[in-house]
Design brief:
Layout (H helix, E strand, L loop, with lengths): L3 E7 L3 E7 L5 E8 L11 E2 L1 H18 L7 E8 L5 E4 L9 E2 L7 H9 L3 H8 L8 H11 L3 H6 L3 E4 L1 H9 L9 E3 H4 L5 E2 L4 E2 L1 H7 L8 E3 L22 E6 H8 L8 E5 L3 E8 L10 E6 L7 E8 L3 H11 L7 H6 L9 E3 L17 E3 L7 H27 L6 E4 L6 H11 L3 E4 L4 H13 L6 H7 L2 E5 L5 H18 L7
Parallel strand pairs: 1-5, 5-13, 9-12, 14-20, 20-21
Antiparallel strand pairs: 1-2, 2-3, 4-7, 6-8, 10-11, 14-15, 15-17, 16-17, 18-19, 21-22
Helix pairs in contact: 1-6, 9-14, 10-12, 12-13
């Protein structure tokens, strides 16, 4: 067997390709950004062709730099930004429209109408998701209703839909010539079209969005030796490499963090933050504002479910300090600026730029900064920004404890924000539990590689994956209980100030 496993990781802002050995160590890596297309306020798009071209380039470049070829890979996994919708022509491979990104809010009228029409409770019961702009189905409906010719193409079974994993898999396996149209259970569970219990597309949910069933990909396990096929020899790998693992990015990070037992949880800090807690083989219906979702399914084993708290704005709040306010020149400077003060000086920043996700789900919220006085400086605002990341995570942790009755012993973390030592220390202080970061922080790509490697026997079992995990750094809580609870109470007051700011359709 070949000595390595590869992973394509196509995220919200960039695509990368990574190669791992049996110890889970990184042997090759290359990454490229893609454009963020913002045609109107609230609209966020990507060019699917650019994403595929970036994927092809990073694969070739990473392999060449490491002196490897596709034949050195036992298998390849794919992980991706979830919920983002792509619709393309099966005959030509050309997209009918740009990909509509998970952050996009243009479908607010569609989702609000579902709630007013009494269909929201059906969507929640079947899919585990609330009808919001976040998920895929309403984005596909918008394309069908607003892009000329797409509805007709769908009726003639010429239009395919998918999340970014399906788009990449279709191209990797031959595109218009022989491409496989397939997705895994985790990505399917983010569309509002999957029945969580049957793990099949649901005709009633499809009817709510007027989406023809013929557009949909087949649904496969996250780790499968046969479902996804092999890479095309004329593609970027230049060889027939088994494609055997697919996971949405947050579920991939969960696998990469080996949170494979009920009660284990991880939090990934990227553009937004996404906390997933393993709930075992039965879906737990949230009463506290969380999402019920698939965590993974390995081969013929029962599917494993999770509760998820999705936070729209965390790392992007730091970007806002840099790009819109200009008070820092780079993300790393946020820590140095925030360290100039011992606390936020009474300032609280709720970064609800386009509403609040879990556990509030309030599209009428907007960002607020409260508690300002003449005393406050840009350092206090930088500190309040880091604290906002941590308080939002505590909101989700509290909701997860309410739903499951399980309290965290430790929070495993990954993502770019974890490079900020001060932010992670504040996170431990706000939660009152240790925060742990692994040695290998590229857990999203690693999780996709694990899923792929398990399918072909590269790793023998999940016990072997667990033995690979090693802690890189730990932050212990330092705040007193009184300081923690006082600060959190003030945060909740600030959140209330952000609500009812805009009229929801």
């Amino acid at each position: 067997m070949a000595d390595f496993v590869g992973a394509v990781d196509s995220g919200t802002t960039s695509t990368r390709f990574m190669v791992f050995d049996r110890a889970g160590s990184v042997m090759a890596h290359h990454q490229l950004e893609h454009a963020q297309i913002l045609p109107r306020p609230g609209w966020v798009e990507h060019d699917p062709v650019e994403i595929w071209e970036r994927a092809s380039t990073v694969i070739r470049t990473a392999l060449n730099r490491a002196g490897l070829s596709g034949r050195d890979l036992a298998a390849v996994g794919v992980t991706n930004q979830r919920e983002t919708a792509v619709v393309w022509d099966r005959r030509t491979g050309r997209p009918y429209y740009n990909a509509i990104v998970w952050q996009d809010t243009r479908t607010d009228r569609i989702t609000a109408a579902l709630e007013r029409g009494g269909r929201g409770h059906i969507i929640r019961r079947k899919s585990g998701l609330p009808p919001t702009t976040y998920f895929t189905a309403a984005k596909v409906q918008w394309i069908l209703d607003n892009v000329e010719g797409v509805r007709q193409a769908a009726q003639h079974e010429d239009a395919l839909l998918g999340t970014v994993d399906s788009w990449l898999l279709w191209h990797l396996t031959g595109g218009a010539d022989s491409g496989r149209h397939v997705t895994d259970v985790t990505n399917a569970s983010r569309t509002m079209l999957l029945d969580l219990e049957t793990l099949e597309w649901d005709d009633e949910l499809l009817s709510f969005f007027d989406i023809p069933r013929s557009m949909l990909p087949a649904i496969a396990p996250s780790s499968s030796s046969a479902a996804y096929g092999k890479t095309h020899t004329v593609g970027p790998f230049g060889a027939d490499v088994p494609l055997t693992g697919v996971l949405g990015d947050q579920q991939a990070a969960m696998v990469g963090q080996v949170c494979l037992k009920p009660g284990e949880a991880k939090n990934t800090y990227g553009t937004g933050s996404f906390m997933l807690g393993n709930t075992g083989t039965e879906p737990v219906r949230s009463r506290a504002g969380l999402l019920t979702t698939l965590a993974y399914r390995f081969g013929d084993e029962p599917a494993v479910y999770a509760l998820e708290g999705s936070i729209a704005v965390t790392g992007s709040a730091v970007q806002w300090l840099r790009d819109q306010l200009g008070i820092i020149s780079g993300a790393a400077q946020s820590e140095a600026l925030a360290r100039q003060v011992d606390d936020s000086g009474g300032v609280y920043f709720v970064p609800a730029f386009s509403g609040l996700f879990a556990p509030h789900w309030r599209s009428d919220a907007r960002g607020v900064i409260v508690g300002l006085s003449r005393f406050n400086t840009n350092a206090h605002l930088a500190r309040a920004t880091l604290e906002s990341i941590c308080f939002q995570t505590r909101d989700v942790v509290a909701a997860m404890a309410q739903d499951t009755g399980i309290s965290l012993d430790v929070l495993r973390v990954d993502g770019g924000v974890t490079d900020n030592d001060l932010c992670m220390q504040i996170q431990a202080d706000v939660l009152g539990v240790p925060v742990s970061r692994p040695v290998v922080t590229e857990t999203t790509a690693l999780g996709a590689a694990y899923a792929a490697g398990l399918a072909v026997g590269f790793w023998s079992s999940t016990d072997e994956l667990r033995s690979n995990w090693r802690e890189g750094k730990r932050w212990e809580p330092q705040w007193t209980s009184d300081r923690r609870e006082t600060a959190y109470a003030q945060w909740k007051k600030a959140v209330q100030r952000s609500l009812d700011w805009v009229e929801a359709d």
